[in-house]
Amino acid sequence: MAHIPRTIDGIADALPSAKRAAFNAEARSTEAADLPACLDRWWGTAVLEAAAPAEETGPGGTVSMTTLTLRRIAAGGAIDWDELDAMRRRRGARTIDWDAIDRARAAAGAA
């Protein structure tokens, strides 16, 4: 998984075609002052698409730790990568889709 640049081309290339058209239309019609917010929002969508978690919700409609972590990565939120790596080593979070986390981490360009 390659890093997704926060550029119009980078985001467009990472989005599936169904969402790419909506992104292109919005990016082209957005005023210059509002473009950074538009790119940030769509970059988050591209990161989530790149990660493609195996399961969106858990039993009873609960949101999984994987989904919460992916949403935080996509929103540009702070992630304690050391803690996540420690959880993986301890195998204390067996229900986390680590492959999806790794794809999102790479797409976000996180170390």
Summarize the structure.
This protein has 6 helices and no strands. It has 111 residues and is mostly helical.
Verbal overview:
The structure is a single chain. The chain is built from six helices and no strands. It is elongated, with a radius of gyration of 15 Å. The chain is an all-alpha fold. The longest helix has 17 residues, at 35-51. It has one domain.
Entry keywords:
111 residues; mainly alpha
From the alpha carbons, calculate the radius of gyration and give it in angstroms. 15 Å
Number of H/I helices? 6
Total beta strands: 0
Order of helices and strands: HHHHHH
Q: Tell me the major beta sheet.
A: none
Instruction: Count up the domains.
Output: 1
Unreliable segments of 5+ consecutive residues: none
Class by SSE composition = mainly alpha
Question: Looking at the structure, what is the overall shape?
Answer: elongated
Helix content: 55-70%
Q: How large is the share of residues in beta strands?
A: under 5%
Distance between the termini: 13 Å
Mean pLDDT: 83
